[in-house]
Amino acid sequence: MPRRFEKHTGDGKSRDERSEGLSDKPVKAKSPAEWAYERLILYIQNFEEQLDNEHEVAMGFTGGDAGVLKIEGMGFFDPDIVTFYGSDPAGGKTQLVQHVSQLNVMLRALPKEVETEEPNRIGFKLATDSA
Fold first, then answer.
1. How many CA atoms lie less than 13 Å away from 43 in the CB half-sphere?
2. DSSP conformational letter for 22
3. What backbone phi and psi angles, to 5 degrees, belong to 110?
4. Fewer C-beta neighbours within 10 Å, C or N terminus of the chain?
């Protein structure tokens, strides 16, 4: 079973754990896309745990001026494609389709929409619907 290790210098916290929360499918039966999808969910959940009620998770793009995508969904297409669904800061629908070999995700905190009372936490929702 894969292991995740993290060490944060600011608060001294570390995390060294087996990757609980991943599907029970045998390791060898998962495609690179499914592995990336499941591990991204864990990173999103961890990031959301650090947010206050005024912020939601978004994804910043690296390279170019593509901007930011408020993550509203994720998926994968075996064997090697990961997809992100969401909207840009202007509310336009956005989808990123990315090969796992080029996967480079920067999680960002964006202010939640004013009309909503509670922030939208997607990490748990994605994990419960995992393939």
1. 18
2. S
3. -115, 145
4. N
